[in-house]
Design goal:
Keywords: Amino-acid biosynthesis, Aminotransferase, Branched-chain amino acid biosynthesis, Pyridoxal phosphate, Transferase. One of its GO terms (biological process) is branched-chain amino acid biosynthetic process. The chain is about 20% helix and about 30% strand. By secondary structure, the protein is of the alpha+beta class. It folds into 2 domains: about 15-155, D-amino Acid Aminotransferase, Chain A, domain 1 (2-Layer Sandwich), CATH 3.30.470.10; about 160-315, Alpha-Beta Barrel (D-amino Acid Aminotransferase, Chain A, domain 2). The longest helix is centred in the first third of the chain and has 15 residues, at about 95-110. The chain is globular and about 60 Å long.
Length: about 350
């Protein structure tokens, strides 16, 4: 069911086009093209369906003052898509082809985006093993596609603190696994813990490390940050990339922006007990999650499964979180300078039209 244009939510307000390309062992990448969004026809024995050879990405395009469209740091997504492909023994898509596919979809469907400054065009590149063969081996045929939807707020129309549930029963990733790439197999197993979080009255689950079950790693599919102290002397902290965390594009951007705005930036492992103790002592004053979908979302309350619960700060969005959210969105939407060249302008997006043929 399609979402209304004025309240697109997240994930249902699909646009009208998609870009597709095929790969076979004999021909490599071939048959690229933009076409109308349509259902896929796959054989019941499609290898990717059975053995999980599926990878994807997520990024956004924003309308800028003057009507043009710009994507935020798509080259990092292209490189991460290649890394995911290598990890799952899939062919790597050249970054230039990845970027062209994104440009074509944005140029075709930019008109679906309203003038609401909180809305954006969410882009979902996807690759799956498409060979009809159930031999337990990598597929010898692949399909790549990009589709899009108009996105509002991931947690609703307003930015409000969320409650989170620390899971001790389930782990998101293990050393040597696929936690640092974006493959479909990482997400389905997380839904049971997310359901437990909902049963506890929380919007998201917090993952601990899978070895000691004490170190805070991620929140749902988002990276977590902690703030120690207040004002210009505050310290902004996130977990180091241990190989089990996804290296988020938003995470990387916030580390750069936090340092640029004068905060001390630290990559440090924080245990769940330390999180609780430092919140109680007033040392950790804010916690926030970040990601393409969530942007920057404050954490107001923590429920540690079967143990305790506590409030972060006064339970509202703190000033450092608000400052960094504004700094990020101002760059994304062209309201402030882009000294790092993070914005990828879509050529002539405001003027190109498509007939939408197959």
């Amino acid at each position: 069911m399609s979402a209304p244009a004025d309240r697109p939510g997240h994930g249902a307000a699909f646009t009208g086009h998609m870009y597709t390309m095929s790969w076979t062992a004999g021909r490599g990448w071939h048959a690229p093209g933009l076409r109308r969004l349509a259902n896929l026809s796959v054989h019941p024995g499609t290898l990717g369906l059975h053995y999980g050879q599926v990878i994807f990405e997520g990024l956004k395009a924003f309308r800028h003052p003057g009507g043009g469209m710009a994507m935020f740091r798509p080259r990092l997504n292209a490189l991460r898509f290649q890394r995911s492909a290598r990890r799952l023994a899939m062919p790597e898509l050249p970054a230039a082809d990845f970027l062209l596919a994104l440009e074509e979809v944005v140029a075709a469907d930019h008109a679906a985006l309203s003038d609401d400054p909180e809305h954006s065009l969410y882009l979902r590149p996807l690759m799956y093993g498409s060979e009809a063969n159930l031999m337990l081996r990598p597929s010898e045929e692949y399909e790549f596609l990009v589709l899009a939807f108009v996105a509002g707020g991931f947690f609703g129309d307003t930015v409000a603190p969320v409650s989170v549930f620390v899971s001790h029963d389930h782990s998101r990733a293990l050393p040597g696994g696929t936690g640092d790439v974006k493959c479909a197999a990482n997400y389905g197993p997380s839904f049971v813990a997310q359901r437990a979080a909902a049963d506890a009255g929380c919007q998201q689950v917090v993952w601990l490390d899978s070895v000691e079950h004490r170190w805070v790693e991620e929140m749902g599919g988002m990276n977590l940050f902690f703030v120690r102290g207040t004002g210009s002397s505050a310290e902004v902290i996130t977990s180091p990339l241990t190989g089990t965390l996804l290296p988020g594009v938003t995470r990387d951007s916030l580390l750069v922006l936090a340092a640029r705005h004068g905060y001390r930036v630290t990559e440090e492992r924080i245990s769940v007990d330390q999180w609780r103790t430092e919140c109680a002592a007033g040392l950790i004053t804010e916690t926030f999650a970040c990601g393409t979908a969530a942007v920057v979302t404050p954490v107001g309350r923590v429920v540690d499964q079967g143990r305790s619960s506590w409030t972060v700060g006064d339970g509202t969005m703190g000033p450092v979180t608000a400052h960094l959210r504004t700094a990020l969105t101002d760059v994304q939407r062209g309201r402030s300078a882009d000294p790092d060249g993070w914005l990828h302008l879509v050529p002539s997006a405001a003027h190109r039209t498509y007939s939408g043929g197959s």
